[in-house]
Amino acid sequence: MKKLSVTLAAVLSIVSVVVGNGGAASAEAGAGKASLGIIGNYSDADMRSMRSAGGAGDALVEMNWSQAEPAPGQFDTQYLGSVAARAAKLRAMGYTISLNTGIQSAPAWLLQRPGARYVDQNGVTYTGGAEPNLIFGTGFRPLAVRYLTKVFQQLGTNFSLVRAGGGHWGELTYPSSEKQRNLYFAFDVNAARGNPVPGWKPGRPSPNGQAAKFLNWYLDSLTAYQNWQVTALRQAGWAGTVAMLYPSYGMRAGDFGKAVATNLAGTSSAEINGEVQRGYDATRQIGALKDKKVAVYGTWAENANTVAYLAGLARAKGLPVMAETTHVCLPSQLPAVMGIARANNLAALYIVRLGAADIVSNASYLRTA
Prior knowledge:
CATH architecture: Alpha-Beta Barrel
Number of strands: 9
Shape: globular
Strand content: 5-15%
Oligomer: single chain
Helix content: 25-40%
Number of helices: 13
Strand order of the largest sheet: 1-3-4-5-6-7-8-9-2
Structural class: alpha/beta
CATH superfamily: Glycosidases
Largest sheet: 9 strands, mixed
């Protein structure tokens, strides 16, 4: 779901997680008692109120790759210093710090390189966001690792967790377009080298199973990107918890078959909603996780079905699960949201953008049996 955009040197969000120094959130930590967290810009007074009266305990600092590295290999020490200073101030207030590295906000010098942007089946280059094509543009990945390494060198590793996803709004996703729904962003020059059905496009007849072959490759490619992100963080020096962001409702049993039955023409329910085109196959993705310090993080905490679905996948892998509300969640929904968190043994529940007073007044529902 939609997240706050990063427009400042470091956008502050208050987030609560069950952690120790360096990060690992345990699956047991969420047993019936989710930790409360807040995402949004707040005054120091509100932060103190939500910490003391609402129980928030962790502050998320978000970064922007394009600000940190405005030229290849040249890092803005003033920007990095401002992020470090913000983190230090928050720690002095009693917060632990979680981090969003912002690799989805690539510098212009990278996006200008051939193959650095996604291309759909119509040959149209995606320019709706600054996320780099690291799914198929594997040659650009060392640049991301270099950036991440610099981040940990400058900021250290005293974080509760590091968020990952690498797509729009930092989630694990392919791009999407509001103008046209049935777009598959796997037709750039780098993607072409691995495409198992070259020349075939979604919506065309597939007498030899081209639709299924393409969709399997498409979804597997995003899954591989997920696992690379975890590996990249390890290579860069981060040994703690990685919170992988899984958006929306997700593909469910039967959605794959329905989509390929009509050759990915965009007519099935999951295609109409964009779940297939954006690669929201959490079953495949979570099942492929190998690192035991990954937290399954959903972005639609108001949806009981979605939270239960992700929680079940996480439990099967022995991983903790967290969730956050969408940006359109209402204060009146908080009691139900917190009940969903309790019912699914979330390790952490994050509330997005709501007023501090609303959060404090509803915080008790998270602990009510």
